[in-house]
Amino acid sequence: HVESLLTASLSIAADAGTVCEGNPVTLTATPINGGNSPSYLWTLNGVVVGANAPTLLVGSPVDGNAVQCAMTSSKTCVVQNPVASNSVALSVLENLVAAATIQPSVDSTICEGQTVVFTASTSNAGLSPSYAWLLNGQPVGNGAADFTTDALKDQDVVVCYLTSSETCLVENPVLSNSVAVSVEICGGTNEGLTSNSLEVKVSPNPSSGKFLLEISNSSTNFVVKILNTQGQIAFKSLENHTNVPFQQELDFSSLSKGIYFLQIISGTQIRVQKLVLH
Fold first, then answer.
1. 221 pLDDT exceeds 80?
2. Which range (44-53, 70-79, 148-157, 256-265) has the least confidence?
3. Which of 52, 55, 24 is nearest to 39 (CA)?
4. For the ranges 128-132, 136-140, 231-235, which has the lowest average pLDDT?
5. How many H helices and E strands in the chain?
6. Does the chain have fewer CB atoms within 10 Å around its N or its C terminus?
7. Residue partners of 37: CB distance under 8 A and separation at least 6
8. Which of 114, 148, 106 is nearest to 221 (CA)?
9. Cα Rg of the chain, angstroms
């Protein structure tokens, strides 16, 4: 009995084209003319690994690792024995850290009924992230990167969950910082006003510390704030005056020299003016 010469060959493939850092990958050998009991010799970067089996589990792959396998066929008549497989270079992606930070469009102290837009700034969010906004733990918004509301109440807390579309992440989804708002009732009415445009004048500006604040066309109640260039509140008062226009001398001599921002909130209107303290 004469047997024909056979050509043995072997190919290997990973169960995933790309794996995340720390995740295992399994490679499987597919023989041709391997016979009933072929033997396998796996190598990782040229070093023998694994068992005599048609599969190899790499527990902690490193990007660029080269895996190859040699098969010895159990067939009697083969042209070449053993035969080497193709080489597979493993592709391993680093695990990224996704993050989200939310910021309101106005200072955290607002007037009741004022429209506020919360915007999420993200890192490693991917090309198609999703957002889940929560107001006091309850879902709100429409899944976009911003959330707009005019129904905030005092001490409401807003947070956002970011779900990144990146493949490899340390954690997903991730929770943003929380923003607790302080809401004041500063609406009021003043029947003597014929215009709804809030007008604010400050003089002299620059000043060594004392400014004359003049406000006209305001509702009865309004909030006066002084913020530094980092957005921190250096001065705040809630004014309730029946006489409009309103005038008051503000003494900021105790503040450090520099640039500040005067913020006047009346109803849903906000006016901001730069102050220079020299």
1. no
2. 256-265
3. 52
4. 231-235
5. 0, 27
6. N
7. 74
8. 114
9. 35
User: Strand pairing partners for 121?
Assistant: 101
Identify the CA nearest to 210 among candidates 127, 277, 140. Answer: 277
Q: What is the pLDDT of residues 23-48, one digit of tens each?
A: 999 999 999 999 999 999 999 999 99
Residue that the structure tokens 């001599």 belong to:
253
Please tell me the distance from the alpha carbon of residue 98 to that of residue 120, in angstroms, as a whole number. 12
Regarding pTM above 0.70, the answer is: no
The closest of 193, 183, 188 to 240, measured between CA atoms, is 188
Q: In sequence order, what are the beta bridge partners of 174?
A: 162
pLDDT at 253: 87
Among 19, 11, 186, CA closest to 95: 19
Three-state SS at 234: strand
Q: Structure tokens of 104?
A: 């309101």
The tokens describing 71, both together, are: 């098969």
Least Cα distance to 267 among 120, 110, 122 occurs for: 110
Q: Which residue, among 199, 203, 225, 224, has the nearest Cα to 276 in the 3D structure?
A: 203
Structure tokens at 270: 């906000």
277: CB partners within 8 A, 6+ apart: 206, 207, 208, 209, 252, 255, 256, 257, 258, 259, 260
Cα 72 from Cα 29, distance rounded (Å): 12
- Cα separation values, 58 from 25, 26, 44, 61, 233, Å: 5, 6, 9, 6, 56
d(CA 199, CA 34): 89
Distance CA 100, CA 146 (A): 12
Burial class for 261, CB neighbours closer than 10 Å (0-12, 13-18, 19+): middle
Q: Is the peptide bond before 173 cis (omega within 30 degrees of 0)?
A: yes
Residue recorded with tokens 């469009």: 105
